[in-house]
Amino acid sequence: ILVATLGPGVANAVNVVANAFQDRVPMFFITGCVDEREAMTYTHQIIDHSELLKAVTKASIKIVDGAVDVAIDKAVAIALDGQPGPVHVDLPISVAVKSQPECAMIVWSAPSPAAPAEGADLETARRWLSEAQRPVMIAGVDVLNQNSEETVAEFVRDFKVPLITTYKAKGVIPEDHPLALGGAGLSPLADQHLLPLVQKSDLIILAGYDPIEMRTGWRNPWEQNRYDNCREKVIKFCAVPNMHYMHQADLSFIGHVGEGLNTLRKGVFANPVWKNGEPEKVRNELKSIFSGTGTSGADEEWGPAVVIDVVRKALPRNGVATADSGAHRILLSQMWECYQPRGLLQSTAL
């Protein structure tokens, strides 16, 4: 919950709200405002809050007398629905100082997790999964937002699918697991190894993958398969429809990521995959490149990579690290092993 006074107070908080919007964090931004009648002739510190915040909030709600409970509950519903984000609530002075009568509240009921409907698209997706010889999964922050970490981890382990995560989804499976290829999206050097693997795959499963975390190298990365001159098949499970156009998928299922994966796997049995061992080679290459010695130099006793390496070894497996914005975050995201979700807290950043 973020609270600010009117006018300049709201303007000063815009960067915080924008960060929440970019990071898919539910936020309730409560601001004071003068009453509409007062604003007709009074201009000191008066600006249109909703217009100022339109680009970085999911909605802007002005509280009215007699419906305070409805406004707050609606703000909660919008902030949590689909992809989480900030909602602005404008509170007029006359309402703020007035008691509200007790009444039966209208409370939002969260929708049940939505799974893909049976039909031709789902049958096609199941066939692709059963026939895949080189599958790969890319998981993003919506896996965490929908509490689907265990479902994703179980799917990856059962079908032996190599997992690339965004940096916010690090730790969906412990990153010392042989199938974990680490977090992507920040390091061009890491992308030189991860993107060719994606382009060699014959099936890409996008699980809660939100490309807002990714750099331009991940724009349309699977347009043309370079392994056998045949385009990859892409199945996407996401919380909201694709309006970003960073990539496209052949099949897209909107709803709950975990329920989507559980539905996909029904009646499908795991087959041997990646017989050439390519994902393991990529994993070993990345571990060699992003290490205390590999990054800082074998003779260097001190430096960013060495610090990261020492701190990671000193902390327990469930230790949590945080990082602010800066170039050091690129190295940290690659080197820091997460053994549980949210083991490394960082921002999409502005």
Helix content: 25-40%
Q: What is the approximate shape?
A: globular
Major sheet description? 6 strands, parallel
The CATH architecture of the largest domain can be named as: 3-Layer(aba) Sandwich
Task: Please give a structural write-up.
This protein is an alpha/beta fold and 350 residues long. It folds into two domains: 2-96, Thiamin diphosphate (ThDP)-binding fold, Pyr/PP domains (Rossmann fold, 3-Layer(aba) Sandwich), CATH 3.40.50; 120-286, Rossmann fold (3-Layer(aba) Sandwich). The chain has 15 helices and twelve strands. The strands form three sheets. Strands 7-6-5-8-9-10 form a six-stranded parallel β-sheet, with helices on both faces. Helix 9 (149-159) runs parallel beside helix 11 (257-264), helix 10 (188-200) packs antiparallel against helix 12 (278-289) and helix 14 (304-314) packs across helix 15 (328-335). The chain is globular and about 75 Å long.
Task: Note the main attributes of this structure.
350 residues; Rossmann fold; 6-stranded parallel β-sheet
Task: Describe how the helices and strands are arranged.
Layout: E1 2-4, H1 8-12, H2 14-23, E2 27-33, H3 36-39, H4 49-53, E3 59-62, H5 68-80, E4 86-92, H6 93-96, H7 120-131, E5 135-139, H8 141-145, H9 149-159, E6 163-166, E7 180-184, H10 188-200, E8 203-207, E9 233-238, E10 251-254, H11 257-264, H12 278-289, H13 292-296, H14 304-314, E11 321-323, H15 328-335, E12 344-346
Parallel strand pairs: 1-2, 2-4, 3-4, 5-6, 5-8, 6-7, 8-9, 9-10, 11-12
